Amino acid sequence: MTWTSVLRPVGIFCALGAMLCAGWAEGFQQGEPDAKAYLAAFDESIKTASDEEKELAPTLRTILVRFFEDNGSLTPSERMIAGSLMQDLKAMLGQGDIVSRGNNGLPSFRKLRSDAKPQPAPAPKPNTTPAPAPKPKKFIPGISEQAKFTSAVVKINGSPVGVVDMSIAGKKQRVVEIHSALPGYPVDKRARIVAERLVELQKKDPLWWSTLGVYQVRGEYAVNARKAENGLLVTADASWAEQWGTTPQGLAKMLVKNIRTAIDPKVDDGIGARDIPTAEDLRIEAVRLRMEGDSLFDTSPQSAEELYRKALKADPTYAVPYLRIADLCQNQKRVEDERAVLTEALQKAQLTDKQRQEIADRIGRL
């Protein structure tokens, strides 16, 4: 089920966490205490924190800053983290001198981390089937379970596309596509390099997904992360941006949201904690459905077409699914269906000049 169907609750705990965060954010907006005071308290508490907490401190501070400045962007797990930090910091600020009280550290966050860590399986009893390890009381990606990254090549109407899939908590999502080769770097090699970067990044920072940002260098946009090698994860190039129906800058921003929400499995649809999806949310959902369809383009055309049509229900302005359906119709010699879907694209889709000309030429040849 997608955002185009009935919206689901994200779970009682996440809902309460969102309410708690919203209440604190409202109090912050009223001015007492302000973000600067909370961040100062956080900086003081880290001085006496454990080595693990000190290592996570820049990431935790980033989550706090987003809590104050862009609260709606927090994923459910980030809301849990922010809620535990705010509980500790409010206690510090309520006790007056944060320097003397900083020795208390971050007990609420420490408990959350403990609750999120995987538990060992109980010792097996004689002549019995070993019991599975108990699930963590709270699930935080990277702490409760590490994601797995795999690269592959899919063919879309004969053209190879490098892809990177991420698996966590029993769910698999496509997070990267490589549509263009570089000298010495075909699409499969580029995809493999990105997957390897993600694996290495995860080893360095369990909350890496919370540090993602948009980076611009030499006129190109990319997704970066705090502990990524050279800061760079993947470049958002023009050919890839066209497949998402946006600009390279827009693609980089969407990739940050897509990866963050894909790794946090508390929301079934993976779009995040917002009650009402934005246009960007709907486009990301449509892109995900289109990518699922691409995986089946050559092997199961009928299933691929169904997914492309679901993508258009999520976002009728997204041009690429129309073109994919038209390609399937062309391969199957369904001339009238091809004409109909191309005409619909001209009427509803947000098209580049290149796409509009391509569609006009195709209709003219039918």
Notes on the protein architecture:
This protein is mainly α and 366 residues long. The protein folds into three domains: 12-116, no CATH class; 148-274, no CATH class; 284-365, Tetratricopeptide repeat domain (Serine Threonine Protein Phosphatase 5, Tetratricopeptide repeat). It contains 14 helices and six strands. The strands form two sheets. The protein has a three-stranded antiparallel β-sheet, with helices on both faces. Strands 4-5-6 form a three-stranded antiparallel β-sheet. Strand 4 (213-217) and strand 5 (220-224) form a beta hairpin. 42% of the residues are buried.
Q: pLDDT average, as an integer?
A: 86
Biggest sheet details: 3 strands, antiparallel
- End-to-end distance, in Å? 36 Å
Rg over CA atoms? 23 Å
Lateral strand order in the biggest sheet = 1-2-3
Net shape: globular
**What is the count of structural domains?**
3
Number of strands: 6
Break the fold down into its secondary structure elements and pairings:
Blueprint: H1 12-29, H2 35-46, H3 51-69, H4 76-94, H5 98-101, H6 107-116, E1 148-156, E2 159-168, E3 171-178, H7 187-204, E4 213-217, E5 220-224, E6 232-235, H8 238-244, H9 248-263, H10 279-295, H11 301-314, H12 319-331, H13 335-348, H14 353-365
Antiparallel strand pairs: 1-2, 2-3, 4-5, 5-6
